[in-house]
Amino acid sequence: MTTNGDTMTTAEYAPEHTPRLDWATLAPDVFKAMVRLDAAAGQGLDTKLLELVKIRASQINHCAFCLDMHSKDALAAGESVERIIQLGAWEESGHFYTEKELAALELTEAVTVLTDGFVPDEVYEKAAKHFEEAELARLIAAITVINAWNRFGVTCRRVPGHYHPGQYK
After folding, report:
1. Which domain holds residue 117?
2. Phi, psi torsion values for 3, nearest 5 degrees
3. Do residues 55 and 149 touch, judged by C-beta distance below 8 A?
4. Residue 108 maps to which CATH number?
5. DSSP letter for each residue of 90-107
C-alpha cells in the first residue's frame, strides 16, 4: 500500500482464502435445522442484544464470517458502530452498555470459553437477575447456537465479506 501524505493512493489486499468445505450444501438438512434452532433460540430476545452476543462469541472464537454477518445484522438493526467496536473490550467499556447487556456479555464469555469447565455461579446469578427464566433459557440457547455456528465457520473456513443483512433468514 502506498500513501501520499495521509491519503492512500493505492491498496493491495491479500487474496481471499478458499473455503474448505461447503457444509451447508453437503448437509442441507443440518444447515436447515441450525437455521431453525437459531430462530427458535432468539425468539423473544432483543435483536440488538442478540447481535451483540453473537458478535462477542464470534470474536472469542475467531470466526471472521460470523463477525462479518452479525456486525452487518447489528448495524441493520440500528446498533451503533461505536458499541460494536467496543465489544472486544466490553469489560473496560462497560459504560457503553446497560447492566443487562453486560450480564449477557459476561454469560456469553463464560459459556463460550468454559475455562474452568463450567459457568461460574456468580456469572449465572448476575444474568438471572436481569433476565426472566424463559428469557435466560433463550439467551443460553442463543449463546450455544452461535458457538456451534462459529465452529462450522472456522472449521470450514467460511469467507467473510460477502454477507448481506437478512440473507439467511
Report:
1. 20-156
2. -125, 155
3. no
4. 1.20.1290.10
5. TTTTGGGS-HHHHHHHHH
Model confidence over 112-142: pLDDT tens digits? Answer: 998 778 999 999 999 999 999 999 999 999 9
Other C-beta atoms closer than 10 Å to the C-beta of 54 total 28
Task: Determine the Cα–Cα distance for residues 21 and 148; give it in Å rounded to an integer.
Answer: 16
Q: Report the C-alpha gap between 157 and 19 in whole angstroms.
A: 5
Cβ neighbours of 130 (radius 10 Å): 17
Residue 7, classed as helix, strand or coil, is strand
For the entire predicted model, the pTM comes to 0.90
Q: Give the chain's largest Cα–Cα span.
A: 57
